[in-house]
Structure formats: C-alpha cells, structure tokens
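Lab notebook, bench 4. Still working through the backlog of constructs that have no structural model yet. Next entry is a single chain of 528 residues. Request: give me the structure tokens for it.
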Amino acid sequence: MPKHQKWFWLAAIIAALLFDFLFWNKPMGVSFLIWTVVVLGAGYLLARREGKRPSLLSLVVTLLTAGFAAVLAWRSEPFTRVLSFFLTFGGMILLAATFLNGYWPWYRLREYFIEFAKVIGNGFAGAVRLSSHAQTPPPVDEPQRPGFWKRRGFPILRGVLIAIPIVAVLGLLLSSADPVFGDWLKRILNLERLPEYLFRLFYILVISAFLVGVYLHALYPSGFQQKPDPNKPWLKPFLGWTETGIILGAVDLLFIAFMIIQVRYLFGGTANISETGYTYSEYARRGFGELVAVAVLSLGLYLGLSAVSRRETKISRAGFSVLAVILMANVLAILASSLLRLMLYEDAYGFSQLRTYTHIFIFWLAGLILVTIILELARRRGHFALALLVMVVGFGATLALINVDGFIAARNIDRALKGEELDVVYLNDLTVDAVPVLVDRYLDPALPASIKDKLGKTLACREITFRNATDRQWQGYRIGQDRAYRLLQKNSISWSQYKSDIDPDGWWILDDGTQIYCGSDEFIDTME
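Model written out:
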C-alpha cells in the first residue's frame, strides 16, 4: 500500500474540483488539455513521491495521450474531436494498466480488454481499499502518532459532507415555514441552485474516489505481472483443419468471383457499366460502405479462425497460411474497389465529412491488412493487437493533422474550378477549421469571379456567426477558432459588399435570389 496515502486523496480531489471548474456548463477546448496534463502530472508526482519509476514505454503513451488531448484545443471538426477524446481516455487507461512495466506492446486483444477492465474495476474499488487500509491500527510494537490529516483533516471533511444534506433539508423546511427567513436564505445561499450544487458535489466525490483507485492501481498493481507472450494461444483450438479449410476456401472463391465482376465493370470503364443499365455515378455510389464492412468482417473471420482452428501438422499450418493470405489479398482488392467507387462518387458529388473519413480509413485499414499478411507469414499473429493499436492511433492522428473541414473545402473548390457546382450551403455547414482555406482561396487573384462570389458570401456568413456570438469562455478556447476569428476580422473589408439580413430563423444572405442561411442563435451557440 502507498506510503503517503493522503497525497493520493489530495491529488484526486484537486483533479475532480478542476474537472468541475473547467467543464460544468462550459465548452470544451483548451480546458480538456489542461485537465489531462494535470491528471497525468499528478500521477507522475505520486510515483516520484512513492519511489516508483515508470517504464520508458509509458512515456510514449503519456506523450500520445497529451497529444490527442491537445487536438480538442486545436480543431473544431466534430468527429476528429470525438475520436481524440476517446483516444485520450484510452491512453490514460492504458497508462494506468502498464505504468510500471510497459508491457502494452506485447498484449494481445485479450490482454487489452482484461487490463482495461482491471483499471476501471480498481478505479471504483481502490478508494474503498485505501480507506480500509488507512483505518487498520498499526502493530503494537510500532506505535505511531497519527498525522494532522488523520487526526483533524479527514474527520472535519467527513463531518462537513454529512452535515450538508441534513442542513439543506432542514433549511428548505424552515424556508417554507417562514417566507422572511426563506428570502434571506435565498439571498445568502442561492437555494434555487441547491440541487445543482448537490449533484456537482456528488460527481466530484465520485471522480475523486475513482481517480484514487486508478492512481493506486497504476503504482501498486495487484498481483505479479509477467510479461505476456503474444504468440501463446489464449484459447484451446477446437475446430478441425478440414472445417477451417472449407470455410476459408469458400470465402476465397466468393471474393474471387466478386473481383472478376469488378474487373469487368468497375475497372473496365463506362461502356461496360452502361450495359447493365446504371450510370457511372450510380454504380460508383452503390456499396462502398458495404465493401469496407466486408473487409472488416473478413479480418474478424481470419482472427477468429486463427484462434479456434487446430493446425497440428505442417500441411495444415501451411494450408491455413496460404488460404489466409489469399483471403487478405482478396480483401485488399475489395478495398481498392471500394476506394475507386468512393473516388468516383467524390468526383461526381463532391467531398463530405463522411466520405473523407472513409477515404482515410480505407488506407489505414489496407495498411493493417498488409501487416496482418506479414505477421501470418512470419508466424507472429499475436502481434496483431499492436498493429491494430497503431492503426487506430494513426487514423486519429491523420484526421487531426490534415484538418478534415479544410481538406473538404479545398477539394470542393478544386472541383468547382473544373466546372462542377460549388455547394455554398454545405460550405456554411463546415466548422471554423475550413475558414483559413476559404480565406486563402478567396484572396487568390486567379480565382474565377463566379467562385469568388460564392466564397465571399460564405465568408460573410462566417463573420456574422462570430460577430453575433455570445461572450466566449476561456475554457472553450481553440487555436483553430481563434485563427479563423483573426482572419475574418483582418479581411472583412474584402467581402463587405455582401449584406446580411435577419428573420426569426436566423441570419441569411442572398445567393442568386436564394436565401443562404448563415445560422441562428442556437447554431452560433454550438460554434462556441
């Protein structure tokens, strides 16, 4: 058990109070980065005070976790922020699970699930375990004088926590009995917000207790942890090689037949597709999401069969590898077909957020499948979990680095330069991450007047949303939002000819006689 137990409680309570201060009724931006750094820093300070040295690989996890937390102080695009949020918390849990040993690169999928469950379970149970240990009397031959916190601090804290709900209930009853006393009490204590205060106190205590358990698990893990062998089977194989071979062979034949059709039609040009009664764009937009799903399910099929199938002879092991590699090769071809369909769809209808996510995901999934083939041939299937972890982290980092909404705006403007229609309404729906690209393109003297006119109206709308936004709280500060605001202020004279109007639905600008809505009060609040 820890040498300095009170410091665990102190660190956890400070982190929980900071959580309430940064996030209650406030937008999430730089506040998330601050809270993450405080939680991680408190863990390292506790480790130093307890004489525990983290693994060097834990430093890698720490840097990646802080990096993804920084994305929320940088980008505004929703999916990038949500993915970075979950990767940050996943990194915290992984760090708590492997802080001292750094065994995470050798984990299989099974170990990841088990260790994550241990961290969460100990997070809820650790505070109780620490409290019960603190109440254990010292041995008779080792008398110890209790410290200040044990003698005075914790009894005072417990008394205050017990008194609060009792005084609150009695105060409400007395307020109802005497309106003068009730008015006085309302002015002093703001009783209308008492339920809110009680709820906030409750989750502060829950977060504090949970963090105590997580810190305790990170620095004092229960039981001896042996370095796992990723190539050791975690499940006793029960499916015979004959059944496995039939399953893989049947799926391989199905995929080969599918790819023959793809070669004739999708890779064969518009003439062959027209024979079927479809236009090129109609054929392209059908099923690229389903093809990605097929690739993911096929990967799951391979992992499942590799875990449950018996391969006791040299022939069965070689046969499984051959059929598995053929399966993965077919999946790569299917991904290529999906990517080609997606690119044709993007050429026909433009880029959107969902299409961009899928576009990037296909490349990372293809990389994962290539690594899976290499691991199969090298008989290192157990390292698949590490490859999957790298793929997920790489996908999240790519979204953050490329600026999804800026990428979409640039590609759709490029389509417009080739004679396609530019969707101003969709440009308005993109987050402020798109503003630097829009301003840069608008100020380009070579831009055709028709496109410049549409971008000018879009930028005028953007300026309206910033101009009429409510006061921004510093907790929601984002670098991308601040940069967009400064660019709009600096160049506002360039599109000042576009006048806005307002009706009950919000602000709007005319585009060729059509009302283009810039946003309502509710929309502007969400931009914060």
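Notes after review: The longest strand covers residues 506-511. The chain has a mean pLDDT of 83. Flag for follow-up if needed.
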